[in-house]
């Protein structure tokens, strides 16, 4: 399977959007394009599984390698392993849903969809890149769309949030840049991940470069205390923007933390694992407690994202195969869940014109579909079995527990405590919005979800359920890849 | 007494600093221009002295001096043209009157 | 004799054009607007001519040197001049003294060509003056404007002052080595105190032309006062040329003192980036804003230069090429708006997207490119500069450089925010773009998008710089 | 051998009901949803009974011992070799017993709800939630893997949440469902960590293997688990204790019981099903499931279990005496009875005669399910009739609600331990087990049984006797509920009356062997007499409306007030959540984030801005100053490079 399709198709769609003549065309082209991406992602998934089933155990499949800046040994090197496939699937789900929920964007529709598709393309490119330079390129490519999406189509303090997001992410990128350059020179002028994974980087270098890379990518994935762009950015972004930000962009960071920082600098990872654990345990609990005090639905989800993403960092910090698998599962799960959450919030906001929990109530009566989805996503967030969040969190806990010392145990217990706090804030949100008496008479005339919203929600719910009910497929996808990473860490 | 290299260098250094001092303190644009001429002349002295005392075999220093004189003239021409134009709009050739562009 | 024509063809073409313009001026035979078209065609020819008969070699006892790399550098400058002539069409049409403006500009260009090719301090000095004195006159080209003459005055005085310092340095070098030839000087240098002193004098003059902090203070005032055609020439062509020469000077002439100048460059690069950025944050006038932004960009160029190897050369040349497109696009937009509405403040750009989406996208591309955000070429340019800077392995330096990208992103985003997001009840009305302006902007936009992605450009430059 | 399809269908049929009604009920199956749910459950019940028959009488007994079968085990999530979450079916005496109880009670509730909730707008939703609950509960009892039980544990929790919050527009219902979920969730945290400890110690998540490894002191796992200690207790002790915390939360053991009374906000049939007969006994079931580990490996924890059960039993009983909301009385009574089951396990040992407590506990679970469901459904019928939960609005209903009255009375007698009703037999065994092992607990249990009889009959007299309310006549209020509501009452009444005669020890015992129960009249005398005393006290106080109860209450003073206010445990929780969780942690965290973390980022921005503002004077516009900076630059470079670094 030609992986370049994954970049080419979104790009083609984006260009087609630019060339289209009216809003209807724009929307349908985007939808078709994103559906095609979804189909492509599924194809990739099945072909990948098939390859693996037929005994192809090469670490990366479908590799392609073209020289790009040959004088600097920069190559257009692509390939996927299970992690990438899972992430690509996630991206394609979120892209379709994002396109669908933005159906009623009136302002600058063409530009909106163009940027949205560009953002998706960046994510695909990022996940298939095996060259750090290209990876960085795709990571950075999303800065413009993110900034403009928030700044133009956002709400509230959108300029402030857009600025903050762009600048903080740029800060992260700056650290990543230094990190990958360090790797480049330390390993004899190569950006190639596969080559770097075989290279030996001296200990002192690892100890310098690992924090740079991890913190750099950490900014993208809301590493405490560099998470402050998350609440503002997410709450100001338009619905699809928040979905993309939390569903995809934050995953870029987590993926980078794992694939680049941890995988390529195993000794650094070991050295700093405890700090990562402390920070992520803090993020988990602190994010959860901070969420408890929020009144705006988007802020609730944004802070809860900080908490949930903390789990994936925790999993990485635990450095066991199961924990890393769990971390990856959490990324996928959180991506779907948080995208759905934002989608629902957007749907509610479109109707009630408020996101304040205190001003709503009893939405169940008039918006049964939306409310049910809200229930599902809330329950997923608090880790209900049968939904994806549970699988991921439990895998992380199981993996974390494999470390037998008191420090890891206490960190795990601390993280586990968040499941109670999560229940508190999620139930508070649910109880005050969809349940309870209707507080505003005008809500009695609200209309339930339209077809596009239903479809978007269903696509994401299917994803959540597919992981939650039968996690085996995801586990099979991620575990071997996590094993490769663990092998490197263990020094084999 | 024949003046040695150091005498001339001393003279040129003095001239240089006088020029710099003049450039920094004079308010009249023409005077500032003249101070720059002093700097250039100190350089000229340097070239000639080096040429004569240290590297008498080649004429590089002398030629350089000639070119500096020529360029200085050209520079002065353009500078004075600009100053005249400035005078037209500002009615003054005091450098302190031309401080609109700042921060 | 044949060699004379092939090796010096860039200079000869420019000289020919200058003379042609002189004759036209004297004969007064051609109408204003068709003259401009003629000039644009001539400049295009000049640019295209740069691609033929490229050879390495030296003339006049190696006082003049050329190589494919040098020709390539000259081509970048020619391209920039051509683009300026297109972008500033509106302003140029209004100027009374059109041929003179181009004569001055081309003289300066000629000076830069010689400067890049110089193999001797004398030629270098002469060409440097040739490259700067006409620019001062160009800065004063808005004859009726107070600010224009103030800027020109500041430029000519400071430039003369820096020439004085430069000459003093050259005279010391001459005193030490007894030669002015680039080829001979390095063998005679050993890093003594006096040599360092002379080098500092020389470097300060370079720093002045290149607007390196703290020698940069004239930059913003002159940029703001001058007509935009001059400003863009100053910020792109002058900077590029000096950057090229600085590399020659450092890598060839002062190669034995690499330890000294590396540290110096690191210090200067850091303060240049930081100060340039800090000043840029606050600016309201778009020209002044771009002035400080270009100072910060120079800081990045210094990061690349500090590598002292062919990676550095490649990265700098590549960056200047990209910088040409990006900065000219930004200046082009500013020029069009300033000329047609008289507005030069960033706040005036509010709501621009509503009325002028094309200009806005070009502006956005340009600024993102300057900020170093992909997929624009600026990303690659900056990245390679930093890569080059990293060859020496000083990660603190690289980190500071990378962190400076955050501040620079902040102020570039300010403009973008004004253009795209801020509401304005009374935005700049829709501007009708001249065909040539549009062409130039499309060229710039294409350059910004493609130069980075088409990696062979970089590889080509690399092959030249080896 | 077990019939896998049949067994698997038992939970899957209700699941099908949930999916069918949940997805399409609102639109397409508005009227038929109740029937669909009930029919599916009926099938499920029949299969359960069939399974029970097959197990107990056909294949279950191998060489005189009821074996444990795991006919199906599918890997659901593999963690590492040997450690995986499996979805399996376990067939052993307790799971089969629970299958019968759950399906039967659920069926009763399904039928009953057809009448009770007739005409409700969210009827299909209700039945789909019931289906979900039944599925989850059946999955829980059939779980073959400790993580599987946790999964279904959470699912029953959420179904309970959904059903308590069924009247979602009632703020009190919303508050109650949140409270129920959060409190049990808190306990589940303990359960989860317990699972992590046990599974790590045992190297497996599978029940059979886990029990095998952690009960024989020879295995490496056991040695390692016993050797690693934390705060003075072995890993095994911690694991088992934490698992019990989970069980205690779900089973509303003191002090994690506070959610149960509030959970009565749900529809009454739901209370009967979830909060009386099935879900709340999950904790007991969990302890029973892991009983070998508790009794063999960590007897200390078992002792704790005993005491927690005993305390819960008596505390709940005392509180029940003072409540006036009839459902709350029943809720506290449930808690008290579960306390019995719990301490019965606590005083039991593994295997043989000394495993009497285990059998007794399960037996009581079984009988309790019958009579408590009956009580709730009866109470539901009353509430349905008078539209109030409060005793003050009731009285003299025996004539108006004859069937309800009789069945309720049977249930009261059963719970009061009056022979020959079901409660007598099971309670008897429990007391015997306690007597044999722990006298202190025995005395508590004995007193509690007296109090139980008292408050149950207080309830009974208050509802059906006491004052005759003039507004309640057949003419004004109509007849009691229809056939669908009365049928379950009658069926359950039969169960409550006759279930005690089942020779339970023959089927269920700690190690699968047959345990013969023997009756000792002398031993039975004490509890029966105490129970009768309680009944007569209630008769004396409440048969007719008078001021004796009020006088008694005043004379008891502080104790009465404390009991009336449920010993202020709710207030303590409220204080902790409100002041500690929200004000002491949540608010500072939010503040910290907004002001410190975010403030830091903004501060960086502001500092940059102000530096930028501060240095603007450098660019003074004076060309001579520029020259000074120029020279300054030269001088600084010269000084640096010539004098300092040279």
Give your account of this protein's structure:
The complex is a heterotetramer of chains A (492), B (103), C (466) and D (646). By secondary structure, chain A is mainly alpha-helical. Chain A has a two-stranded antiparallel ribbon. In chain A, 76% of the residues lie in helices and 3% in strands. Chain A is built from 20 helices and two strands. Chain A has one domain. Chain A has helices at residues 4-19, 23-53, 82-101, 109-128, 132-141, 143-153, 158-186, 193-196, 203-220, 229-236, 239-264, 266-292, 297-318, 321-352, 363-366, 368-381, 388-401, 406-433, 451-469, 472-490, and strands spanning 61-69, 74-80. Chain C has one domain. Helix content of chain C is 78%, strand content 1%. A two-stranded antiparallel ribbon of chain C has the order 1-2. The mean pLDDT of chain C is 89. Chain D has helices at residues 4-28, 33-59, 93-116, 123-142, 146-164, 171-202, 207-215, 220-227, 235-250, 259-262, 268-277, 282-289, 291-297, 299-322, 326-346, 356-386, 402-416, 422-437, 439-464, 474-477, 483-498, 504-507, 521-542, 548-556, 558-564, 569-614, 623-644; strands spanning 61-62, 65-66, 69-80, 83-91, 229-230, 233-234. In chain D, α14 (299-322) packs antiparallel against α15 (326-346). Chain D is mainly alpha-helical. The radius of gyration of chain D is 30 Å and the shape is globular. Chains in contact: A-C, A-D, B-C, B-D, C-D. Chain A binds chain C through residues 67-72, 74, 133, 136-138, 140-141, 143-144, 147-148, 151-152, 158-159, 162-163, 166-167, 170-171, 173-175, 177-178, 181-182, 184-185, 208, 212, and chain C through 311, 314, 364, 368, 373-375, 379-380, 383-384, 386-387, 390-391, 393, 395, 398-399, 402-403, 405-406, 409-410, 413, 416-417, 420-422, 455, 458-459, 462-463.
